Structure prediction request, 321 residues.
Amino acid sequence: MREYLFLFIFVVAGTGGELCASRAMKAVGEVHDFRPAAIFQFVLRATRAGWMWIGIGLMTLAFFALLAMLSFENVTFVVPVTALSYAAGPLGATLFLHERISRQRLLGVLIVSIGVTLVWLSRD
Amino acid sequence: MGLRSGTVTITGVVSNAALHGAKEDAKAEAKERGMDKSSTEYGHMTVTHLKMASETTDRMKDSPGPHFKTYFFILLMVLFTPLGNVLLGKGMKGIGSAKDWTPSDIFHVFVSIMTSSSIWLGIACLLASFMAYMLVLTWADYSYVQPASSFSYAVVATLGYFILGETVNPLRWTGIIIICAGVFVVGHTQPRTTEKR
Prediction:
């Protein structure tokens, strides 16, 4: 039961964190200048975005959920099942960032989900 | 670029990274409307002498240097991400799971995590992988880099088998290979699906 809970927290918090960070980065704007000083200025601007801090908080929560899963499950099981984020990502991106999901991406998500199901079934 | 009305004529070489997104939008719109590569006219859209080349492709064609650099950084990503995860796994196996999940129990596990060398080494590997990913994205396309990272799922199973002595049965290998294929397919989709702001 706890593996379901931690996987749920990892996928939801991890995907939510990335979506929040993505929203913050889109608000900050595209990087055109890759000099260290310019990148530093860009990071500084990014840290002023509220969404970025929500994203960092959620990604930290996802990291600790991953550690919790690794404390009682094998890494060869945990890491592949976390690929479920590839299925949650497009769903969140559609709802939260209003992105369009192509048929090919949906097919990829379906293939990943089949793979995750097989890994889940392979548990001892 | 408006494709819904009027006539659009595209001529020349697209070699600027900023225009690459516009080119991809135009291709997607044309494809959506049933246009294939051999069509020169579809509805109100006319395409003449269109040659498209992204900066990545051009740079890669120009010299073997960037090609090697891209492979090298992708290799770093594909090695450091699974290595980081394996080290995290090793650290957490040593610490063990919280027994009754009381606040004091969780605090004890948290302190053990913060003082574990394997955990910190794992975090360092994941940070190194993240840096390699960020750096490679400054000259290579996301749609080129992201599918390559799918190999890390196969590498983590191999490292888990050799370093941690974990058993990977045929069903799990099949699942991992299918996941790699799925991530590869996701990575080959258009990176941008929204209007540029």
Chain A has a mean pLDDT of 83.
